[in-house]
Design brief:
This is F-box domain-containing protein. By secondary structure, this protein is an alpha/beta fold. Helix content is 32%, strand content 23%. The protein is globular and about 75 Å long.
C-alpha cells in the first residue's frame, strides 16, 4: 500500500504576520497573564496565560510569539499569591520584560503590606511607568507610599513626558488611616497633569485639589471620565474647567479650600458650561458644602445620581432649572418623599426614576400620591418607569402575609398614577400608556409589575404575585 505524503497543518502554512494577528486575537480578552484565585471560595492560586500556552505548542510558535511584545503587555496579579514564591515572582518580571517597549496594561490587587517578593514585581512595574497605558491598582497605603517615593521626581516635575502612554487609571486605597493626607490631595492632580493622553481617571479614597498646581484651561481635553471621593477648591465649576470634554463625573463630596472665600469666588469666577452628560454623587457619608454648584451650568445632563445629605437641594434644583438640563434618568438614595417631588419639579423631563430607600410601606403610598396628576399640575409627565429598592424586610417575601398588603398598595399606586395622566385633559401630559415598576430587596428582584393603560391590565413577571393581585382586584 502506497503511503500518503505527510501534510502540513494549514495553520502552519500561514505567513507570520497573519499568524501573529490570530495570536493577538486569542490573547486579547482581558489579560494575557493572570495570577488569581480560581473562585471566591478558594485560596488556591491559579496561573492563567494564553500567551504561555501558545509558546508550548512548538518551537516555531514560541519563536514567533517571543518576537511579538504586545502579547506580553497585559497582566493581572493578586499579590498575595506571590508570597513565598520567588520563582513565580521572577516569572512575572520576565513576562513583563518580554513586552519590550509596548504600552503596558496591568491590574494589581493587594490588601496588606508588601513583602520583599511582591515588591520585586511592583518595583519592576514602577520602573516601566513611562509605558503604563491602562492601570488598575487596588492596594493598601504602603504600596501607595512606595509608588510616591519611587515616582517622586516624575510627579514633581509635572512634565507631560512622565506618563506619555497613560490613558486609563484607576487607584483604590483599602484604608486611608495611615497615609499622608496631603498625598491624597496632590497625587491625583500630579498624575493627571503628567498624562497627556489620559481619558479616564478614577481615584477612590482621594481628595483632589488643584492647590499648588492649578488647572490649565483645556489642558485635559481627552479626559471623558472622572471618579473622585472628594474635591477641595472653589466649587465644582473650578474642578470641571480643567476637563472641557468631560462626559461622566462621579464625586463623593465637595469642600471649600481654606484659601478661598465665597464672596470673592462669586465675583472672580465666570459662568462655566460643562459638557457632562452623567453626574453621580456616590458617597452618602460625604457632602457638598454650600456653594458647590455656583457658577456652573449643565445643559447636556441626561443622567443624575444623588445621595441625600446636607448638600443644598435648593442650589441643585436652581442649577437644573437654569441649565434647562434634558435629564432623563434620575436615581435618588434615601431622599424623603417631599424632597423627591421638590427635585422632580426642577426636571420634568425625567423618563426613568429609580429610588433607593429604607423607609416603610407608607413611603410608597406617599411617593405615588406625589407622582399622581392633580388638576393643575402634572409632575414628570414623561415618566415611563419607576424602580424602587428598599430593605424593609417586613414586606420582603411572597409567602409573608404582609406582602399582600404591599401588592395591593402598589397596584393602587400604579393605577392611580397612570390613570390620572390618561383621563385628565386639564394639563399638558403625554398620555402615559404604561408604567413599569420594580421592587427590589437590595440587588434581589422581589416584584416586577407592568401596568398597560389600553387594557387597564396590571401584569407581573411572577405568577404568584399576579394571582394575588388578581384576587384583590376591585
Amino acid at each position: 500500500m502506497q503511503k500518503d505524503p505527510s501534510t502540513v497543518c494549514p495553520i502552519h502554512t500561514l505567513p507570520p504576520g497573519v499568524l501573529g494577528q490570530i495570536f493577538a486575537a486569542v490573547c486579547s480578552n482581558d489579560y494575557s497573564f493572570k495570577v488569581c484565585c480560581p473562585s471566591t471560595l478558594s485560596n488556591d492560586s491559579l496561573l492563567s496565560s494564553p500567551t504561555l500556552l501558545l509558546t508550548q505548542v512548538c518551537s516555531s510558535w514560541r519563536s514567533l510569539i517571543s518576537s511579538l511584545p504586545n502579547l506580553w503587555s497585559s497582566i493581572s496579579i493578586e499579590s498575595r499569591h506571590l508570597y513565598g514564591r520567588p520563582a513565580l515572582a521572577a516569572l512575572v518580571v520576565t513576562y513583563i520584560s518580554r513586552s519590550g517597549s509596548a504600552p503596558l496594561k496591568f491590574r494589581l490587587e493587594s490588601d496588606s503590606a508588601a513583602p520583599e517578593i511582591e515588591l520585586q514585581v511592583f518595583d519592576h512595574l514602577l520602573r516601566n511607568a513611562s509605558r503604563w497605558s491602562d492601570v488598575v491598582m487596588h492596594v493598601s497605603p504602603p504600596w501607595i507610599q512606595r509608588a510616591a517615593s519611587k515616582l517622586e521626581s516624575r510627579l514633581l516635575s509635572n512634565s507631560p513626558a512622565c506618563f506619555p502612554n497613560l490613558e486609563y487609571f484607576t487607584l483604590r486605597i483599602h484604608s486611608e488611616r495611615s497615609i499622608d493626607r496631603k498625598m491624597l490631595q496632590t497625587l491625583p492632580a500630579q498624575l493627571i497633569h503628567s498624562s497627556p493622553k489620559l481619558k479616564s481617571f478614577s481615584g477612590f479614597g482621594f481628595n483632589l485639589s488643584w492647590n499648588g498646581i492649578g488647572p490649565l484651561p483645556g489642558s485635559h481635553s481627552l479626559v471623558t471620565g472622572l471618579v473622585l471621593d472628594k474635591f477641595t477648591g472653589r466649587s465644582l465649576a473650578h474642578l470641571l474647567r480643567g476637563f472641557p470634554f468631560l462626559k461622566m463625573c462621579s464625586i463623593g463630596g465637595f469642600e471649600l479650600s481654606d484659601s478661598d472665600n465665597h464672596a470673592a469666588i462669586f465675583l472672580e469666577d465666570h459662568l462655566y458650561l460643562s459638557e457632562i452628560t452623567h453626574l453621580s454623587h456616590t458617597s452618602p457619608w460625604d457632602t457638598f458644602q454650600r456653594g458647590a454648584w455656583q457658577n456652573l451650568r449643565l445643559p447636556n445632563l441626561v443622567s443624575l445620581e444623588l445621595h441625600y445629605g446636607d448638600h443644598s437641594i435648593s442650589e441643585l434644583s436652581s442649577l437644573l432649572c437654569q441649565s434647562h438640563s434634558p435629564l432623563r434618568e434620575l436615581e435618588l438614595h434615601n431622599f424623603p418623599v417631599a424632597e423627591i417631588i421638590r427635585l422632580l419639579h426642577s426636571v420634568p423631563t425625567v423618563v426613568h426614576l429609580r429610588v433607593y430607600s429604607d423607609a416603610e410601606l407608607s413611603f410608597f403610598n406617599q411617593l405615588t400620591t406625589g407622582l399622581t396628576l392633580s388638576s393643575y399640575y402634572c409632575p414628570v409627565p414623561n415618566l415611563l418607569s419607576l424602580e424602587l429598592r428598599w430593605n424593609d424586610h417586613r414586606y420582603k417575601r411572597l409567602s409573608d402575609p404582609n406582602f399582600k398588603t404591599l401588592q395591593i398598595s402598589i397596584r393602587d399606586g400604579i393605577c392611580g398614577t397612570v390613570d390620572s395622566r390618561s383621563v385628565s385633559k386639564a394639563v399638558s401630559a403625554l398620555n402615559l400608556q404604561k408604567l413599569a415598576v420594580q421592587i427590589r430587596d437590595g440587588d434581589f428582584l422581589e416584584l416586577e409589575l407592568l401596568y398597560e393603560m389600553p387594557e387597564h391590565r396590571l401584569s407581573s413577571m411572577d405568577l404568584t404575585a399576579f394571582q394575588l393581585l388578581d384576587t384583590y382586584h376591585d
